[in-house]
Design a protein that fits this description.
Length: 496
């Protein structure tokens, strides 16, 4: 029999319903694996006791015929989601002891659907980063290593790096992530799992620690497209508490998955080619993806998204600008850390608290954002960036208006890299998101699906981008890729 920690959500649901095992057994198996693989540092705060209590409730609900869509499924929750009574750090020292008295809408929906909380997943500080190395709690580790090089530890990607490492390392059946510029899709690609950034507004942001409010979006990370669709259904929906959450119906994502891609038009944007630094190897994997979709009955068409090259610089004005405003609330008065010494003025307290509480990357973003929003530079940087953002969104709209149903690109310009390799070079680190950021600026859904192993033996994902609120087509196309790719490789850590 497949180990309990190797099951997909769909398989686990069937096994639970058939009485092959209990939710408690499923949770216990994951808790044991979490201990065995604690070296992945995927969790900032494991919640074993709560997990067992939740599993017990799930067993009772299953017994009573009241199982929800995620009943008894053990998951990791990115530490950006506020969880009532469970420490929520956002990967930062400044929130290192913060225990929220409320629950985020998305996590509350998952508990209502029956999911079990294994723990709070590691992440880059305030979701700023692409390697999980900016976490104040040490970096999470990618369970994958290069073929023949088991000693070089690789990053899991970021910012949802703990979530991705946990799902790939079989110490969570699925996980939540958040994606502002790529933080679900890039770590999914680096760890060989599936990750979906939904349309902006599809999931409530209420109770999620804010990074850049016009970009942040919660989404599921799992090992199959079907599992991703199942979890998406439990997370999505309008929330009156978030004025940017969209009052649109939640479709049956899981039902859409098997509809195939016959007759779909798949756009291939020419701007995602080598001048962006794409290696010939990843270009070849992209071409394989195109062929897989064609073989499944889709048509590929060349398209142009002419403003793509401005996306990264635009993002690095808008996201830090919003972050500098959002992070002003960490002032030592209301949340978390306070550094106050005898004789200090209020201003001294602000400065000392923020100096001690924030890491280097967060400080860099606050400085850039404050600069871009300052009176003398607002028009030159922030306003200009907003205009370019509109042009980027119009590029996508023109492609979809032109008849394209979905767009296929690589998720990342490279596979996972060694810990320490990029952390001292912010611009190189920022380039990780060159293919994911345009989608975020346009607010569109983006899915990363693992398609192949590189010559180094590392997973590489391809990204599918859809129309606003058309996650269904994205998931359908993702399932077609998944079927054709037959990506069954497991991290070497789990071999033998
Ligand atoms: N890596 C990007 C950044 O550092 C995106 C992060 C995210 O999506 N949260 O801003």
């Amino acid at each position: 029999m497949t180990a309990l920690t190797d099951l997909t959500i769909a398989e686990a649901r069937a096994g639970l319903a058939a009485g092959d095992f209990t939710a408690t057994e499923l949770t216990e198996a994951h808790l044991a694996a979490m201990e065995a693989r604690a070296g992945l540092n995927a969790y900032i705060t494991p919640t074993a006791e709560r997990a067992l209590a939740m599993a017990k409730t799930s067993d009772a609900r299953i017994h009573a015929g009241q199982a929800g869509t995620m009943e008894g499924i053990p998951i990791a929750m990115k530490d950006l989601f506020c969880t009532n009574g469970v420490r929520t750090t956002a990967g930062s020292t400044i929130l290192g002891t913060f225990v929220p008295p409320y629950e985020s809408t998305v996590s509350a929906k998952l508990w209502d659907a029956g999911a079990v909380l294994l723990g709070k997943a590691n992440q880059d500080e305030f979701a700023m980063g692409s390697s999980n190395e900016t976490s104040a709690f040490g970096n999470a580790v990618n369970p994958w290593t290069r073929a023949g090089d088991p000693d070089t530890t690789l990053v899991p990607g970021g910012s949802s790096g703990g979530s991705a490492a946990a799902v790939a390392g079989r110490i969570a059946m699925a996980a939540t992530g958040t994606d502002t510029g790529g933080s679900i899709r890039q770590p999914a690609s680096f760890c060989g799992i599936v990750g979906l950034k939904p349309t902006y507004g599809r999931c409530s942001r209420w109770g999620i620690v804010a990074f850049a409010s016009s970009l942040d979006q919660a989404g599921p990370m799992a090992r199959t497209v079907t599992d991703t669709a199942i979890m998406m259904g439990a997370m999505a929906g309008h929330d009156p508490q978030d004025s940017t959450s969209a009052p649109v119906a939640v479709p049956d994502f899981a039902a859409a998955v098997e509809q195939g891609v016959k007759g779909l038009k798949v756009g291939i944007p020419k701007e995602y080619r080598p001048e962006q630094g794409l290696s010939p190897e990843i270009d070849a994997i992209w071409a394989q993806g195109m062929a897989m979709l064609r073989d499944a009955g889709a048509e590929t068409v060349d398209i142009s998204l002419p403003h793509t090259k401005y996306a990264l610089p635009t993002y690095y004005i808008i996201a830090p600008a919003e972050a500098s405003s959002n992070l002003a609330r960490y002032d030592g008065v209301r949340y978390g850390l306070r550094v106050l010494e005898e004789g200090d003025s209020l201003n001294d307290m602000y400065c000392k608290t923020r100096a001690a509480g924030f890491g280097a990357e967060v400080k860099r973003r606050i400085l850039i954002g404050t600069y871009a929003l300052s009176a003398g530079y607002y028009d030159a940087y922030y306003l200009k960036a907003q205009k370019v953002r509109t042009l980027i969104a119009q590029d996508f709209k023109a492609a979809f208006d032109g008849g394209v149903d979905v767009i296929l690109t690589p998720t990342t310009p490279s596979a996972a890299f060694p810990i320490g390799a990029e952390i001292d070079d912010p611009v190189t680190m920022y380039l990780n998101d060159v293919f994911t950021v345009p989608t975020s600026l346009a607010g569109l859904p983006g899915l990363s699906v693992p398609v192949a192993l590189t010559s180094e033996g590392l997973p590489q994902g391809l990204q599918l981008i859809g129309r606003p609120f058309d996650e269904e087509t994205v998931l359908r196309a993702g399932r077609a890729l998944e079927k054709a790719a037959g990506f069954t490789a497991k991290p070497r850590l789990l071999e033998g």
